[in-house]
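Fold this sequence, please.
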Amino acid sequence: MILADALLFDMDGTLIDSGPVVEECWAAWAREYRIGADRLSGVLAHGVPARQMIARLLPADEVDAALARIEALEIERADGLEVLPGTRELLAVLPDDGWAVVTSCTRPLAEARLKAVGLDAPVLVCADDVEHGKPDPAPYLLGARLVGVAPQRCAVFEDAPAGLAAGRAAGARTVAVATTAAAADLDADAVVADLSAVEVGPAPADGARFAVHASPTLR
């Protein structure tokens, strides 16, 4: 059991199944910019902001335009997304002041994806809101501040090693969902297949607001 006063959720791969769409869009983007598949695969890291990855592939004066292009491609494909198992059920039991979405997407893309699947985040932290993205703790530190809870009293839900590293660095407890990476590659307090294995109820002690139960755990 994990005790917390607020829950902070990554979006892609945690709440929303966007993997195939993301791969298709990045492949199309790479063809436009004449970037080979091997070079692209060496840079792409799930959960890391697109700007950070593009900056490793292109000259600095081309990054803004290239970022706008991949964002446009992904927004065009937002209608092909679905929520992952357990997402709607878990979010439905949470009060609006008790959770937030913390994503490496830009705000326009994050809002397009949430709208496409019918989710409405009460608090949304995006790549545009911080100077340094995941695995830096800045996104989760901001998420905790916006929900008015110390990061050490938050539980972070993530599917990517970079996001889990950000949550740990922020001082939060972590729950990993093995929707993108293998369970063995996820360093977290609990590892589950998806959010259908997570239940949240009132905390029995410690003065915490929520008790998070993850079962069955994969590791």
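The longest helix spans residues 19-32. The two ends are 14 Å apart (CA to CA).
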